[in-house]
Amino acid sequence: MNTLRTAMLLAAMTALFMGVGYLIGGSGGMVIALLIAAAMNLFSYWNADKMVLSMNRAVEVDERNAPEYYAIVQSLARQAGLPMPKTYLIDNPQPNAFATGRNPQNAAVAATTGLLQQLSHEEVAAVMAHELAHVQHRDTLTMTIVATLAGAISMLGNFAFFFGGSRDNNNSFGIIGVLVAMIVAPLAAMIVQMAISRTREYEADRRGAEICGQPLWLASALDKIARGAERIRNPDAERNPATAHLFIINPLSGERMDSLFSTHPNTDNRIAALQAMARDMTSAPAQRQAPMPRQDEQRPSGPWEKAAEQPEQPTEPARPKSNPWGRNPTGPKGPWS
After folding, report:
1. Average pLDDT value over all residues in the chain
2. What is the pLDDT of residues 156-187, one digit of tens each?
3. Helix or strand run (H / E) with residue 110
4. Which of 8, 116, 165, 241 maximizes the CB count within 10 A of its CB?
5. How far apart are CA 229 and CA 93, in angstroms?
6. In which order are the strands placed within the sheet that holds 107-112?
7. What are the distances in angstroms from CA 13 to CA 4, 89, 199, 238?
């Protein structure tokens, strides 16, 4: 089903790309746009994840230079039944995170240093569980390709004024078509991004809460990330707004309303859904997951393995604890130490 949706999305984005090409250069422009779109679709499938990570200046880390962060992702991936994704850190004070990759075997998760510094151990685990839910649902391919093509369509619209409207093409719309392309193309690409992101965030919230076992951890994390994003700018995201829908919370300034022009659902609505999920888990207690152990516990196996042997958990959902990392969340060999 996700493969079909991705194919339909690619077809829609290609048609939009061709339409903009026609408005700019007539039938010749449409043919050129078709060739460009075909090449971009192929390129995006194999390389869009690398482009997104590069746009955000993400640096790959492992258990040597980011031990706690890496251990969290490793344990959650095991719990979700996923291959271990590549882990990246972004040197940015705004708390945020995203996932990318064409499939679970080639996935990557990225978190900002602000996320690891400002959130607790449990909240970070909940955020990364949300990102792994995107990987498990195979949202990452669709969302990453949309980011690439939406950026290209927006750029094509921005260049319409310089390349369109000449008498040498067979564009019957002339300068009017160019103006329409300049205005409509970026808007249409943005609406497609919003439609993709908003519906999938609720699904990833629910699945992420199931993976980490505590919906309130994710609810608390979303609240902190949203408040942090309001106060702290993300320059890389501002320069590449087509990638905004990849993040767990909109990294762009001034986008907080649950309206047509928001790339994400309203954070309060997401938190309310997670709180309702926590109440349902409390009223109908099932087999609970064991809390994630600290590094000093030195357990050789995953934190949720053999959950049946753990003592019975309290009916009240656990609240996040204080940040155990302090200033440097990556350990003594962190890339920004």
Report:
1. 76
2. 666 655 555 444 555 555 566 566 666 666 66
3. strand 107-112
4. 116
5. 9
6. 58-61, 86-90, 107-112, 97-101
7. 14, 30, 18, 22
CB-based contact 207:189 (threshold 8 Å):
no
Residue 131 falls in the annotated catalytic set: yes
Q: Tokens 């039938």 map to which residue?
A: 27
Q: Could you give the CA distance from residue 277 to residue 274 in angstroms, rounded to a whole number?
A: 5
- Token pair recorded at residue 331: 């350990």
Q: Which amino acid is at 174?
A: G
Alpha-carbon span 288 to 282, nearest angstrom: 10
Please name the amino acid found at residue 103.
N
Tokens of 122: 């449990």
Q: How many Å apart are CA 148 and CA 14, to the nearest integer?
A: 12
Of all helices (H) and strands (E), which one includes residue 60?
strand 58-61
Check whether 304 has a pLDDT greater than 80.
no
In angstroms, the CA 277 to CA 273 distance is 6
Among 131, 203, 238, 309, the active-site one is 131
pLDDT digits (tens, 9 = 90+) for 55-104: 999 999 999 999 999 999 999 999 999 999 999 999 999 999 999 988 89
SS3 109: strand
